[in-house]
Amino acid sequence: MKKYGVYLSILTLILASLACQTVLGGGSDSVQEEPLPPFEYSGDSPQPTEETTDESDFSFGGDAEFPMPSDATNVFDVAGTVNYQTSLSLDDVVAFYRDAYGKEGLTERESNTVVANGVFSMVFDGDPSGKAVVIQGVDLGDGTVNVTITLQDI
User: Fold this and answer.
1) pLDDT one-digit tens code per residue, 15-39
2) How remote is the C-alpha of 82 from its chain's centroid?
3) What are phi and psi of 124, to 5 degrees?
4) pTM of the prediction?
5) Nearest Cα to 7, choosing from 120, 111, 94, 151?
6) Three-state SS for 82?
7) CB neighbours of 6 closer than 8 A, spacing ≥ 6?
8) Domains in the chain: ranges and CATH
9) I need a surface site. Which of 55, 63, 105, 119 has the fewest CB within 10 A?
10) pLDDT at 126
């Protein structure tokens, strides 16, 4: 029964990442964006004070806490879950994380590693947070692999 939960989790992450890629305009470099019109403050709403802080844990770009291949694109971080695409093959992504986390002293749960039918899932123990690093990926069929990384209590 646990095996089906892992597959369901992978499928959910895949669908969520594909939906996010669609919403975020995933990957087309040929689109030309028009500049935004100038913004003028009308005075109707209060201006933020210095005490205001941005407590959002949502960011775009390569400033994630997890290692990523140098060609990572469409990188986003939402609530500690990082998603990106790479042109590496599934096997190369698996090898990348085995190497990266091996150098950091983390241990792969080999019994949880699955690489089959265009998807992979792996779990590493030893993160300073005390949580497991869960890495899942799917071959998008266009020469890219979508990868999702998160810390989980499993």
Assistant:
1) 777 666 655 555 555 555 667 677 6
2) 3
3) -120, 140
4) 0.60
5) 120
6) strand
7) 112, 114, 121
8) 2-22+59-152 (3.30.310)
9) 55
10) 93
